[in-house]
Each structure stands twice: as structure tokens, then as C-alpha cells.
Amino acid sequence: MTSDQHDRPAQAARVTAAAQTMKAIVQDEYGEADDVLRLEQIDKPEIGADEVLVRVHAAGVDRGVWHLMTGLPYPIRIAGYGL
Questions:
Q1: In sequence order, what E strands does 1-83 have?
Q2: Domain ranges within the chain, ordered by starting residue
Q3: Which is the most buried residue in 9, 10, 64, 80, by most CB within 10 A?
């Protein structure tokens, strides 16, 4: 057995463990982004036969959503801003 063949089970175990989780930006409460947004390793969601899981490398947040994250009143929402 070559050393390459010997290492494959360990590599497969690492890949399997990594494939079961993913990194995500998480917000559990309202507040300023610096205080409430955090990067976490979470379980990957299970997808159905008619669903897909998309890998996102970058995402933007518009001002309306940024303000909603704080939980403060937002009068422009009444006018339909962001719809």
C-alpha cells in the first residue's frame, strides 16, 4: 500500500465532515450590525429533490434592509420602500 492510498480514508473523513457544515452570517437579535452580525459554522440545510443549495461568495445589503436590522421604526416602509 502506498502512502497516498493510506491517507485517502482520513481525507475522505475530513471532506465528509466539512460537507455537513457551512459558514453563515447570523443575526439573532436587532441592533447595530457590528454588535449583532457574526460569522458562524452552521449545519448545512437539507434540501429536497426539487431544491438547490447555492454557494454565495459575496452579497450586498441595501440601506432599507440595513435599517431594518436595527429594529428601529422606519416610516418609509409604510410608503413601500424596498418592494
A1: 21-27, 37-43
A2: 3-79
A3: 64
